[in-house]
Amino acid sequence: MKERKQVTRAHLLALAGLLGAGLTGSMGVTPTTSDTLAQREHAGLAAPVRTQTAQAAVAAITAVAQQAAPAPVVVAQAAAQSFDPFRQLRTRLRWLPVKLGDDMLKTPDAQSRILLAQSAARHADLADVGLSYKDVYGIINAETSWIPRLGSSKDGTPNLGIAQFEPATARAVGLTNPADPVQAVHAAAMHMREAAIWSAHRISGLKLSATERARKLREGVSIYYNLSSKGRSIWNGRNTAKLPFETRRHIANARDGAEEAAELEQQLTELKARMKGSGTITAAR
After folding, report:
1. CA–CA distances in Å: residue 258 to residues 177, 235, 255
2. Beta strand ranges found along the chain (DSSP E)
3. pLDDT single digits (tens) 124-169
4. Which of 29, 196, 244, 247 has the smallest number of CB atoms closer than 10 Å to its CB?
5. What DSSP line would sit under 173-191, residue for residue?
């Protein structure tokens, strides 16, 4: 938690630079270990993948995704190369180097995270199920702290990219390239929509205030994203404290991430207003 708050403060101090045309900063933050996606029962999964370097991780993600994808998906990938619905969004995203262990990876800067989360929330119509872009930001924060990388479940199943999709889950949500952060975050938002519908059904019989219901709805989204069908089936909206520690940590990290998104959005809005009013920026000391 402490590390994430430090990252937030670092983002806020660097926002002026992030809004400029050139991005040359670096981040030396090593995030906490991310929680992984659900332990789903399925056959035919690729063998566990282990890597030593960032370059090997990227290659492994691509290899696993291709191995898991059936022929129609390969065709879809080829078609996607000629038509990218997110092309305009990609031109607005900026990436910063970040050190993870001994590896140098890349993470979207603060403004890019907000843009990506907002786009994903709109495409998935999350407002219709009681969620917002802040919840997308929070889930990605809980999964990888916004650093695309290769992970694994307890059983060794690979978890791919910025949203940590297992190969079978990626196929189920139509994600052709889990290593592509733009595709993956939009797919995560669609998965969250399904999770919110499930969560709302689980808590429908509880007498809750509007605030309590919103909090429980989001607990359910993390539970759906983090646990298998069997694991999540025990949740009734009242027994969250009895869930595995990793799932409870996922809930907390997603909540912290949503709060971080709101704070960053406010700071960005204020900064843009100051830039528009004065045309200059004075760095905080």
Report:
1. 25, 22, 5
2. 95-100, 103-108, 150-152, 158-160
3. 999 999 999 999 999 999 999 999 998 888 778 889 999 999 999 9
4. 244
5. TT-S-TT-HHHHHHHHHHH
